Structures are given as C-alpha cells and as structure tokens.
Amino acid sequence: MLIARLAALLRENEALRRAVDTGEEHFRALSESINDAVLICDLDATVRHASAGALRTYRYTQDELLGRPLNEIIHPEDLPRVQQVFTEFLDEPSGDVGPQDALRVSCRLRAADGTWLPTESTISRYKGSDGAPSRLLVTTRDLSERAALQRQVAHLTFHDGLTGLPNRSYFEERTREVLSRQASGGKAAVVFVDLDGFTAVNDSDGHAAGDQVLAQAARRLRANVQADDTVARWGGDEFAVLVQLPPDDRETRATVELAGRLLRVLSVDPYQVGNKHIVLTASVGIAFAADAEQPNGGGSDAGRRSAAAPPN
C-alpha cells in the first residue's frame, strides 16, 4: 500500500512539474510574440527570462539580465516610489479582482550604454500549480520617442521658430518667476531693444532678407549677455533681455552698460544678406523692478531709461 501511494505521489509530482513547465513555456512564448520588452521575474523582482524585445530595447545580453534584480537598473530618484507601489501591489490578496490585479508604473530604466530611458511598465502576477502567485510578468514600453516629441512640442510652444530664442510667453513666465524671488533680496531689470528702420528692409529687400537680419541680431544679443540672463524675441523686430541682479547690487550701472553694449553690437556692424550689407540703428529701454521692501510692493516699472544708437 505504501509503495502504491508513493508511486501515485511520484506520478502526481511529475504531472505538476509538466504543468509548471508548460505554463512557463506558455509565458515565454507569449513574451516573444510581443514587441514590447517583456520580463519574467520572481516575486522579489529578480529577472528569470528576458524577451528578445527587452534585449533589443535595452541592449543587454541574456547573461547581463538573468538573475539580476530590477532595482539595479531603475533610476535612483524613481526607486523609492517604485518600491513602495510594488510592495503594496504584492501585499494585495492574489485572489482579489480589481485595479491591483495589474500594476502600472512609470520610471526611468538604465540601458546597457548607461542612458536612462523613460518607460511605462505593467506588472502582472501569475499563479503556480498550487494557485499561489509564483512569478511576475513585466511588460515595459520605451517612451523615449514620446518624451522627445513632448520636448519638441514644449520647445515650439515657448520658443521663436525663426531665431530660436524664447518667445514672449516664455519671457513673461520667466519674469514672474524671477520677481517672485525678490523677497529674498534679489533684483531684476529688463532691457527692451528694437531695430530702427527694420520695416524698410522688408519693404525693399523682402521678408527673407528681414528674417536673416533678425536671426543675426538674435545671435549678437545672445553672445553679449550672461549665461543666466534670458534673451527673448518680444515680437516683430523687438527683443527683451531679463537681467538678474545680485542682492547686494544697489547700482544700475551694470545694466546701463549692458544696454549700451547691446546698442553697439546691433548698430556698429552691418548685417550680411547675400552680397548686400544692411546698416541699421537700434533703440533701447530699461525697466528696473522695485525692491520688495518698497511701499509699492515691487512693480516692474520702478525706473526706465532709454537711448538710441547714433546713425551710422
């Protein structure tokens, strides 16, 4: 009787083993049929299988991924959040049906070349022969192209297509940000610049020539300000420069000198348009933001100065 029971137990174990192997092969075959990166992991997120899509996306070899914990390739800034939601997901009863049957999480993963790729992953539990969760199926989608498109859209929204400078919307938002920090003692000034006689260039030489002049003027402005100053195309032939002044600077001389320098770089040298040299003058105005401790609360029109470059 004992021998018969032992034989029956061995047959049952063999049947269970084949069932487990069949289930594992099923998930492996499924992972290879999906274009996304698919990983099969233990419950502690150790990789046990990586699909061809995963190896292709992240440029790892099988040996580099198998047996490796996923937390080693998650960005350190994202890891605490991912670990928290992952722990909560595993603590949910496996028999429950609801939003936690599959976990969706976004994070940055390190590719084999060291670059961080934005990803969105769906993590699902699947059961072993005893009905308890034994593996995790992780399906990951690389969002690099979508992130690049979002950055491009954001750039086009806040930058001028002709000159590549920030546009008026960006400049106004940046100015509000800088002025909001005035309570800590910082000060700011804005230098407004426009090209005199620019309309005549469009009328006599065409808009293409005018576009070249504007692009050259933008480059000259950008090359003659500090790295933390903001140069923007205000509109038409007008530009604006946001200058951040140090908290202990009680003088306006530096900003006035900057305005004079910008006048010179826009007026002294002619603009090259094909074989033609176009000479223009420029005008400038300066607005100083009031100190936060002044009674008027720090308006942006506390002081104004203007000048015009002499005709060449």
Write the layout of secondary structure elements.
Elements: H1 2-32, E1 37-41, E2 47-50, H2 52-58, H3 62-65, H4 79-91, E3 102-110, E4 116-127, E5 133-142, H5 144-158, H6 168-179, E6 187-196, H7 198-205, H8 207-223, E7 230-235, E8 238-245, H9 253-267, E9 271-273, E10 276-278, E11 281-288, E12 303-308
Antiparallel strand pairs: 1-2, 1-5, 3-4, 4-5, 6-8, 6-11, 7-8, 9-10, 11-12
Describe this structure in words.
- The chain has 312 residues and is α+β, with helices and mostly antiparallel strands.
- Helix content is 39%, strand content 27%.
- The chain has 9 helices and 12 strands.
- The chain has helices at residues 2-32, 52-58, 62-65, 79-91, 144-158, 168-179, 198-205, 207-223, 253-267, and strands at residues 37-41, 47-50, 102-110, 116-127, 133-142, 187-196, 230-235, 238-245, 271-273, 276-278, 281-288, 303-308.
- It has a 5-stranded antiparallel β-sheet, with helices on both faces.
Could you give a quick summary of the protein structure above?
The protein is of the alpha+beta class and 312 residues long.
Continuous helix count: 9
The largest sheet has its strands arranged as: 2-1-5-4-3
- Average pLDDT: 78
Radius of gyration: 32 Å
* Portion in strands: 25-35%
Secondary structure category:
alpha+beta
How does the overall form come out from the CA principal axes?
A: elongated
Give structural attributes.
312 residues, 12 strands, alpha+beta, 5-stranded antiparallel sheet, disordered C terminus, 39% helix
